[in-house]
Amino acid sequence: MHFTKRRFFLSAFQVVVILMTGGILALPTARAGAAQKPNIVFILIDDMGYRDVGCYGSRFYLTPNIDRLAEQGMRFTDAYAACPVCSPTRLSILTGLYPARVGLTNFLVGQRWPDNSPLRPFTNWKTEMPPEQVTLAEALKPLGYVSACIGKWHLNSRESGERSKATSPEAQGFDFVVASAPNQTDKQAAGFTDKAIEFIRANRDRPFFLYLCHHSVHIPLEARPELIEKYQKRVRPDDPQNNPTYAGMVEAVDESTGRIMAVLDELGLTANTIFVFTSDNGGLSVREGPNTPATSNLPLRAGKGYLYEGGIREPLIIRWPGVIASGSTCSVPVSSVDFYPTFLEIVGLTHQPVDGVSILPLLKQSGTLQREALFWHYPHYSNQGGLPSGAIRMGEYKLIESYEDGRLELYNLREDIGEQRNLADSMPEKAKAMRQKLDEWRKALGAQMPEKNPNYDPSKPPYSDPAKAPQAWQESEPKPKSKPAKRARK
Ligand SMILES: [Ca+2]
Questions:
Q1: Considering the domain 5-25+35-372 in this protein, what is its CATH number?
Q2: What is the model's pTM?
């Protein structure tokens, strides 16, 4: 089943009803005289890892502005991206849907598949966001919001040709768009920030949604020379985070965040602005391009491209003065599919069913979530060495299922955040029940599954031409059937 614009427009009638009955004015609380709906500032960093921020435990990177944002808001310890790579997580943020439901399950458009692997490549996965999906910008528009998309979009592609126009930010509800080719260098962080500030100043008197998506801290790694020099002096032999160039990029997005915070203060908008800071997938912890690995997510296992915690657990800070207690933390697991229903509940907008749930009770500390599980479906080989797999988190337990051979990994994240002790054999009933739930979820969403490869020859390497393999594969042990534990650690 797909949720479409048609269903959204049906519910638009309900919006009118809510407007007429004053429901919207009734929702925002604790902001005296705030008749105007809250602004939303959403800063999305590309490939920033869970531990890449000072307030998440880094001893190497310096992020005073992001740390200050956390002191003024809520820091989530168990926040997840819906996918370990870019595009699907971006889809989930803007629609509230799991990537598996839409069939957009990999980054656009770079599927690389080993020619000798246990699974056959499938090609009918979506290579653009279906135009009929209702984005946050489209949903907010009837309430008078003006929306900006500044930076990386990554939900369409040149490969989709003419159709890419229908999936551009402009066609998906954004009024002000500053876009560029993917993977531009760090020089753009400041330029994007200039544009974001321009947008905020121009729209200070009306509700706005700023979706600021830096290319940083994605490869290629490039930073200002003075920052590289600064962090060269901070490298310590016992710290696995030790890349001065990457550190310079982290500092540049911290500066950007500080500048956005400052302009909100200057214009008196801070109190009526929901400020979100997060990332789209884990930090790059293997070799991929010059001067990599970029970072280390330790003690989390692995990084971008993997369903281990290092690939999907994210920094998430949300500030909303008067509603969110300053300096608070939340350890309830949340996902990038939750932003959409949360924002729409806050502005009082009824919407079509989505996969995420509103986390407003967590923000207000007025209750918890009635959610049994979080799910992931990544049926691809990642450039970083990740294998086609699915995952489910229920409470403190997480199960990962390999799609190559059905191998199960079960971890207790409370006792074993590094996912080092596989409990699947010692807790077979728990593993079986969670695997069953994951399978039911996949079936309910119509998740695409790769088929077995009848020509697979385990005695041969995954790539017949090893030079065509991603760098992370070339530098690791033989790929298929090897133990992920060996490959995943730096
Ligand atoms: Ca990314």
A1: 3.40.720.10
A2: 0.90
